[in-house]
Structures are given as C-alpha cells and as structure tokens.
Design a protein that fits this description.
By secondary structure, the chain is of the alpha/beta class. Helix content is about 40%, strand content about 20%. It has 16 helices and 17 strands.
Length: about 425
C-alpha cells in the first residue's frame, strides 16, 4: 500500500503533518512518527481539500475562444453543435485530457462532467488520475426515433462504465428541457432510480429558455419538472438563474442540488441574479462549476469562487453576502455532498483528495486571512501540489506529460475547426 507523509503544512491556522495511506487520510497531527514511502515538505504551503467542479463539459477545451461574444442560442446552433457533430473519440479523449490537465494545475481533483462519447471521457479521466462523475449527454429533439436510440446508447454506456477506475462514477445526463422530450426525461429519471445514479441536467439557464418553456409547456422550467415528477435528491441542476420563491421551495422540498456557474452565466449574458441566499436559507445544497471552456474559457475554480462572491455582493448591494468561506464551501464540502463523495474536508478517514497552496507569493503576503486571500487575491496558479485518491498528480507545479497534451489537443482543435 502506497503512503505519503506531508510535513509541516499549514492547516486551520496551525502547522501539522498529514499521513496518507492508500487513498485515505489516516492521521493528522504534530510530529507524526510514521514511515512513509514518500515525504513532501509542506513548509510555506497550506493544505486545502481538492476542489470539486460541479458542472462542466471537459472536451470543450477544444472550443476555447471559438464562438465568443455571441448569444447563447446562436452560439449553440451555429458554432458549437455543428463542430461537435464532427468530433471523433480521439478528439474527445485529448480534449478531456487537456481539461484534466488544466483542472489539476488549478487545484481541481473531481469534476461533474456532461458530454457525449462516454468511453473517451472516462478513459482520459482515468489516465489523468482525477475523480470524475461522467454523464453521457442524451437528447432526442422530440423525435421518437432519437428517443429510443438515446435509451439504447445510455444502457450500453452503463455496461461500459464497469471497466473503468473506481474514481469514475456513471451518471444520467438528459441535456435540457428544450432538447429532451418528456418521455426521455422521465425515462432518465426511472433509469437513475433503478441504478442508484445521479442525474445531471441544465435548467432555467436563460430568459429565452424560461419564456420558451412557458410558451411550449405552459409552465416555467422548474414547474415543468415538478409536474413530470422529476424533482428528486439525485437531481443536479446546472445554472438555475430564472426561478421564483415558489420554485425554490419546490427544489428544497425535493432536496434537489444546484450548481452555480457564474463566469459562464455572465459571459453568455444568461443572467446574473442567481438567488444564492434564498436557496441557501431554504436548505438547498449549492456547488460551483466552471461550465465548459467554450462558454467560460477556463476551468479555474479559484477564479470562479471570486466571481461568484463578488457577483452576489454587487447585485444585492451588500458586501457581507457570499463570504470567502461560503465560496470555498461550495467547491469543497458542498461539492462532495452533491456528488456523494467522502471528500471535501481535510480530516482523518476521508479520501485523500487535497492540494498544497504556495504561500510564498504576493497573493498570500501578508496572510491575515488565508481563505480570504485564496478567494479574493489568488488564482489557480497558486496551486503547488495536487493529490487525488492518494496519488500525486502534480508536484512543484509540474504534471508529467503536460507538453504532449498541449501539443496534441491544439493540433486536434485546429484540425476540427477546419472541417
């Protein structure tokens, strides 16, 4: 069994040692007297839980900068979907490897991902060593033939999922209410219940989606799901900007989980009045996500924490709201609750997913308040070392094989856009 000893690292205003055995944090204390296969000097570093990206589309790193400054619907129909239709398994594999590289470099150890070509995504995440909830997107565009094909494909992917690392968790992923029929939505719900899976769905992202739902279904997006009986504790909704107090109560009553994507929402002008305080007070568990690189351009959750916090303060004219600690909770313990993982805290018995933050930089000088500095002053470049499932993925800011990933992904992206 592999073991790691981190010596003299800063945790909760104290300096401690952390002993990792296998994939578990076994002990935390001062001057631990243990034998470890590898020792890491934690001096001038702080330890935090590995960050959890609650919503993304990893392979869309290949679309970074392709289709910027466009309305959401035009962006999807004219720039993204036509190119995605031409992607191969190899394209997705290297796009996901690039995403994993970027996430590792910025402190993310787990991602909740939604994309096509499950096998390419799962293999890339397995090879890179991160933890991933991989949900293959399905849609039918209200066509019965597509509905049956989506069901068949999902069942096959569920079988395929058995061959991957235990770090890879399979989930259901109907894309959105404007691309998925009520039949396929209800089938996804039953499928997830039958196999004890999470469900990952975009909802109430834009005003257009909201207004079209009212016109097409006679109900707002949340009420539409409620009518179909699809609200449940296993449901994870991304975005959820356009909703009212009654809908918040519906979500809370059914223990639905929400992932806020502030940078994507702002860049796509989907909306900025995310009702964090109302949802939190209702008891809803809220995480943070970056969305894909085509809509937010990077996968830096530390940057996303700052945006989320400042956005709440700005639109409510209250600087006390969404504190730095609230932001950090969203990408650690809240993210772990949403994805049903025993991570999110640095404590004995939890999975060994953690990051060491370099304190020897301007963002942490002076260091009156570490969490405040992390959220408001730093960005992903402050991450020095990343450990996931007890394995070192990055040390001294270096990830093995990163140049090959950059070169291969860039070549694929340029070729894809020429097709």
């Amino acid at each position: 069994m592999t073991s790691i000893l981190i010596k003299n690292v800063w945790l909760d205003r104290d300096t401690v040692d952390i002993f990792i055995e296998g994939n578990i944090i076994r002990n935390i204390g001062k001057n631990l007297d243990v034998n470890a296969q590898q020792t890491i000097d934690g001096s001038r570093k702080a330890v935090i839980p590995g960050l959890i990206n609650g919503h993304g589309h990893a392979a869309m790193t290949l679309f970074r900068g392709w289709g910027d400054d466009m309305p959401l619907e035009q962006w999807l129909y004219d720039r993204i979907w036509p190119r995605e239709a031409k992607m191969t398994e190899e394209d997705v594999y290297w796009g996901v490897k690039l995403a994993c590289l970027e996430m590792i470099k910025t402190g993310t150890t787990c991602a909740n991902d939604m994309y096509t070509m499950f096998n390419a995504t799962a293999q890339a995440a397995t090879d890179m060593g991160i933890r991933m909830v991989a949900a293959p997107t399905i849609w039918d565009f209200f066509d019965k033939k597509n509905t049956e094909a989506a069901k068949k494909q999902t069942l096959q992917y569920l079988k395929d999922a058995q061959k991957y690392s235990s770090r890879i968790t399979f989930a259901a992923a109907p894309h959105a209410i404007y691309t998925v029929s009520s039949e396929l939505l209800q089938w996804s719900h039953d499928f997830a219940n039958d196999h004890n899976l999470l469900i990952h769905l975009h909802l109430a992202e834009s005003r257009t989606e909201h207004d079209n739902a009212v016109q097409q279904f006679g109900l707002s997006p949340v009420r539409y799901l409620h009518k179909l009986g699809l609200l449940s504790p296993r449901l994870i909704l991304a975005h959820v900007v356009w909703l009212d107090e009654e809908e918040i109560k519906m979500l809370a009553d059914h223990e639905v989980k929400i992932v806020h994507n502030p940078n994507s929402n702002l860049k796509m002008a989907s909306g900025y009045q995310f009702k964090y305080m109302e949802m939190k007070h209702a008891g809803i568990t809220i995480g943070l996500g970056t969305d894909g690189c085509a809509s937010s351009n990077n996968l830096d959750l530390i940057e996303a924490m700052k945006t989320a916090s400042l956005l709440q303060k700005a639109w409510r004219y209250d600087p006390t709201l969404f504190s730095a600690q609230d932001a950090l909770d969203c990408v650690t313990i809240n993210g772990a609750k949403i994805l049903r993982l025993h991570t999110g805290k640095i404590e004995a018995g939890r999975l060994a997913d953690l990051c060491l933050i370099d304190l020897n930089c301007a963002a942490f000088t002076p260091n009156f308040n570490f969490v405040s500095n992390l959220v408001y002053a730093a960005n992903g470049s402050c991450v020095d070392t990343v450990i996931c499932d007890g394995r070192i993925l990055m040390q001294n800011k270096q990830v093995p094989g990163e140049q090959e990933i950059l070169d291969r992904a860039a070549a694929i992206a340029y070729r894809l856009m020429k097709k």
